[in-house]
Amino acid sequence: MFRLTRITVAALAMLCVAPLGPITHAQQPVTLTVRADRPGVRIDPMFYGLMTEEINFSYDGGLYAELIRNRTFRDDAASPAHWSVVQDGGARATIALAQDPVPGTALTTALALNALSASSTQRAGIANEGYWGIPVKPDTTYRVSFWAKAAEGFRGTVTASIESNDGRMTWASRAAGRPTGAWKKFETTLKTGRLTPSTANRFVLSTTTPGTVSFSMVSLFPPTYKNRPNGNRVDLMELLAGMKPAFLRFPGGNYLEGPNYENRFNWKATIGPIEQRPTHMSPWRYRSSDGLGLLEFLEWTEDLHMEPILALYAGLHIDNGANIITGDALKPHVQDALDEIEYVTGSTSTTWGARRAKDGHPQPFPLRYVEIGNEDWLNMGTASYDARFTMFYDAIKAKYPSLKIISTMRTQDRTFVHTRKPDLLDDHFYTTIPTALAQAHLYDEYSRSATKVFVGEWATNNPRVGDTPMMAFALGDAAFLTGLERNADVAIMNCYAPLLVNVNPGGRQWAVNLIGYDALNSFGSPSYYVQRMFSNNRGDVVLPATIDPLPKLTLEQIPEAPQPAPAPGRAGAPAGRGRGPTGPFDAIYVSATREDSTQDVILKLVNIQATAQPLRIDLQGVSRVDSKASGEMITGELGAINTVAAPRKVVPTAVAISNAAPMFVYDMPPHSVSVIRLKTR
Ligand code: AHR
Predict the structure, then answer these.
(1) Which end of the chain offers a freer environment for a tag, N or C, measured as fewer CB atoms within 10 Å?
(2) Is residue 498 within 6 Å of ligand 1 at its C-beta?
(3) Residue 551: alpha-carbon gap to chain centroid
C-alpha cells in the first residue's frame, strides 16, 4: 500500500503503456499483485505440446509432403479417383484400374494407360490433380518416382511433367524411363524455373508411343523440412516449430482406434519403404496412404525437438462398440504394443530396434509416456477398459518399469475403478467460451493427492463453425490456459486439438482447427498465436497472483462467437453460449510465472471485457525491475479469422514498455491477450 499511495491517479494515467489497437471507454484500475517472493508450483518443461492425427487431410494433403493424391490407386475400387486421361493433339487413349500387384511389395493395384494412337505430336498419358492442385513454386526441384511395366509391344519412353491444368503451360518436364515387361521403379527430378507460384496444376506421366503401360505408386515430392526423404511440408513444420512444442501426442485420437478393427492404426503396416505399406481407411472417411507412418512420426518429433507421447491401440474402434477386442484376443495387440515400444526405444541389438535401424534410424528415440487407447469412455468402451488397461499396464511395466502410463479415463469419470493406478488421466475438452472461462478454475480444487492429469485434447470451438478459430475463441483458449498454468502441479501437460486442416472444400471433417492451409499457403489462427505466445513464454515456476478488485461479467456480457448467416431454409448453428455455466465470470484472467534461466517474471493477461482495463501491476519480492519490458499482445474483432487469402489479419503485435517498475500500470486492450516479460536482474 505504501507504494500505491505515492502514485496519484494522474500519474497512473501518465504511466499507462499505450497498447496497439482501439481502446474503448476505460474501466477503473484494478491491482494485480504478484508474489515473486513466494514461488509456487513448478511447470514441467513438457507442459505445452502438440496433438495430431489424420483428420482434415492433416497428413495426406497436409503435413506429409507427397503431392500425388491416390498414389497407389486404392482410394476407390471402382475408378481411378483423382486421375484422368491425357489425350493431346488428337491422341486416343484409355485408362483403367487393374489388379496387377508389384511382386515383393504391398502394391496391389495399377493404373493401365492404353495409348491407342500416339505420336510425337500426339501425347497420351495419365494426370493427377493432387490435393486440390499441385503447388508449383519457382526454382524448385521436385522428386518423382513411379513403378511402371510395359505390355508386349510397347517400345516408348515415359515423360514426367508438371503443367497447368489446361496443359498450356509446362513448368518442368523430363523423360523419366523406358518401361519393360517387368515392374520397375523409375526415379527422376523436375526443376521449375522462374514462374509465379500457383496451384491450378497437374502432374502428368505420358508417352508419345502407342501401346499399354501400367503404373503403380506414383510419387512427387517438393523439397521437405530438413530435406528428409518421404518428409514433411516446410511451411507447416515452420509454423509448428514456432510453437516450441515439447511433445507430440500421436497417432490419435480416433485415428488410433480406426473406424473398425481392420482399419485401426496398425503400426507394423506403416513402416518400411512406402511401397510396403498397404494403406488403410481413416475414421474420417478417406484412405490414409500411411506415408506418414510410425517412423515419420518419430522423425517429426526429432526435427522439432519434441518427445513422443505414444498412444497404443487398445482394442476399441469408432464403431459404437461393435467389435471391442478383449481377453485372449487382445493379447497379440499387447505384444504389438511392446514391439512398438521396442521399435521406438530399443537398441539395434533388439528385434524391433534392428528393424528401426534397417528403416534408416539406428538411434533410439526418447520415450517416457505411453497412453492406452483413446477416449475409452466412448464407443461402449468403458465396461471393458479396466481389464484392457490392466493387460497393457502389467506387460509394459514389467518390461519398461520407468515408462509412465496414461489412462484415457477422464477426471470427470470419478466412479471409474482402475485396478492398476495410472500415472496420468487424459482429460478432453471441446467447449463454448463461457465453459472455457469457467474451466480456468477447473483444477483449482482438484485434490493434490489424486492422479495427475494430461489434458490431451482441448479447444474453445463451440459452436463449431469455420475451419479455424475466430478471435473470440482465442480469448477462451487463453483464459483456460492461465488456469492450466496455475495448476501445473496437477495438469502437467496439455495439447490443443485438432491441429491441422486443409481448408479446401471437402478438406475438413472437424470444424475449428489450429492451423489452416491449401496446397501452397498456410496460416495460424488467433488461437495458434495464443498458443505460441504462451508456449514461448512458459516459465518454470508459478508465482501467486491475485487481482483486486476482480471485475465480473454476466453470461450476457461474455463475448459470443459471431454466427454466420444460416443457409436459406436451414437452421442456424447452435447459440454460442449453449448450455453450461451461467456465471458470473471473471473478466480478467492472469498467470504469473518466472523463468529459471533469465529470472524474468512473465505475465499472461487476458481481458475478456469489451473495454480497456488499466491494470496496476504490483510485483512484490523483487529487488529491481528493468524499466524496459517487452511482450506481445493479440486482439481483434470477435469474429475475425485468418485465412489463406488474409493469413495475418489477426496476429500479435509487439508490446514495448519503457516504464516498467515494481509497480506500474499496463492497459489491457479490450478483448485482448498479452504476454509481458519483466526483467528482474
Ligand atoms: O480431435 C478430434 C477428435 O476428437 C479426436 O479424434 C477424438 O479423440 C476426439 O473425440
Answers:
(1) N
(2) yes
(3) 35
